[in-house]
Amino acid sequence: MAKKMRSQQSEPAPEPKEEKIRCGWCAAAPEYIRYHDEEWGVPLHDDLALFEFLILEGAQAGLSWLTILRKRDAYRRAFAQFDPEKVARFGDKDVARLLADAGIVRNRLKIAAAITNARLFLEVAAKHGSFDAFIWNFVDGKPTVNHWKRLEQIPAKTAASDTISREMKKLGFKFVGSTIIYAHMQATGMVNDHLVSCFRHAECCL
């Protein structure tokens, strides 16, 4: 009888999973959450990935980052998987193809800038050994770790992004204003702007 009663007892309820605390800006969409949890703020040193973010950040100008994230796969197809050597060789036919591609932001100036920036990206990489070496030198090769408690404390640009923007503009890069560059720095982990309450703040410091 006792054995039968034990078999009828319900299994203990599983303990509820602890909800992860994230930066508030990423709560709007699953694409944001995935990007926040897996990419934003992670120190990035791969030239192809750095080139991708440079082009995507430029494409974002005047738009939301969520819009660009949702077009990211289309951008990869349209821009040769963000291979700067291939993009640097794009000509008039490619520009016409891109202007007809509904999957990306069909802005002639942004498309032209992407091609120009690909050519300059290669020049910088050749001169410095890699684009990674060039861009990370502005922060002495180490991420700047901030300790913000509220979203409104996070700046749109900094003295470092001002400097990088100014130097890249001198080289001829387009769509590299200080605000765009600071977003690039955040995305590629040159700066850790996760709130201290966010579970990714400590992880991105490892």
Count of structural domains: 2
How many β strands by DSSP? 2
Which strand order do you get reading across the main beta sheet?
Answer: 1-2
What fraction of the residues are assigned to beta strands by DSSP? under 5%
User: What would you give as the CATH superfamily of the largest domain?
Assistant: Hypothetical protein, domain 2
Helix content: 40-55%
Major β-sheet annotation: 2 strands, parallel
Radius of gyration: 22 Å
Global morphology = globular
What would the CATH topology of the largest domain be? Endonuclease III, domain 1
Question: Please, what is the average pLDDT?
Answer: 92
Q: How widely separated are the two ends?
A: 56 Å
SS-based structural class?
mainly alpha
Give the helices and strands as they follow along the chain.
Answer: HHHHHHHHHEHHEH
How does CATH name the architecture of the largest domain? Orthogonal Bundle
In the CATH hierarchy, what is the class of the largest domain?
Answer: Mainly Alpha
Extract low-pLDDT stretches: 1-9
Number of helices: 12
Keywords for this structure?
12 helices; 206 residues; Endonuclease III, domain 1; two-stranded parallel ribbon
Write structural notes for this entry.
This protein has 206 residues and is mainly alpha-helical. It has 2 domains: 60-129, Hypothetical protein, domain 2 (Endonuclease III, domain 1, Orthogonal Bundle), CATH 1.10.340; 131-206, Endonuclease III, domain 1, CATH 1.10.340.30. The protein is built from 12 helices and 2 strands. The chain has helices at 2-8, 30-38, 47-60, 65-70, 72-78, 84-87, 92-99, 108-128, 131-136, 159-171, 178-187, 199-203; strands at 144-145, 191-192. It has a two-stranded parallel ribbon with strand order 1-2. The protein is globular and about 50 Å long. The N and C termini lie far apart (56 Å).
